[in-house]
Amino acid sequence: MAFNKLTDNGSTTPAGLVAAAVAHAFALFVAVSVGANISCGHVNPAVTFGAFIGGNITLLRGILYWIAQLLGSVVACLLLKFATGGLETSAFSLSSDVSAMNALVFEIVMTFALVYTVYATAVDPKKGNLGIIAPIAIGFIVGANILAGGAFDGASMNPAVSFGPAVVSWTWNNHWVYWVGLLIGAAIAALVYDNIFIGCNTHEQLPTTDY
Description:
The protein is mainly alpha-helical. The protein has a single domain (2-197), classed as Glycerol uptake facilitator protein, CATH 1.20.1080. The protein is built from eight helices and no strands. This is Gamma tonoplast intrinsic protein. One of its GO terms (cellular component) is membrane. It comes from Actinidia rufa. Its main location: membrane.
């Protein structure tokens, strides 16, 4: 929205994509850091789903997180629309040459990378001092994924981020992609990390001097 305002609704440029990636990376870094001691930084339904699949949160807690995340997204979009004098909160959409299946694969891969990073730096009980950098690592992987996939389908990686704008603008074209792909990617990452690494008897915490 800010980019459209600055460019008078001009087309997205490489510089605009880089700016969006950097802004998302640092914003998520702050959001996860602020919420880490309250809700373990759960601001993404896909991450919450991955944590549930790995048995790290209960179903009830996961549902409550989802409600808070989705409601927060809708309220934020409504406030943004009001604060900007009615500017449109554009829903996520696919580029003209990108099919729904292409976008589905993109979202699966990008969300896998995100949830795998969350498991490695925040969930793994043997992470040691690596947990200190969890918020910045999570922010950076999101920023990197936006650079890689933003030009194709917006690089959501977060159903709540897609849901709020879709509700406020009432635009649901290919919206399912931003749920199905993300939940599949999150589930695969959770199962892979939980069963191969956390569940491995030889998985030991490294000494802090090795970091």
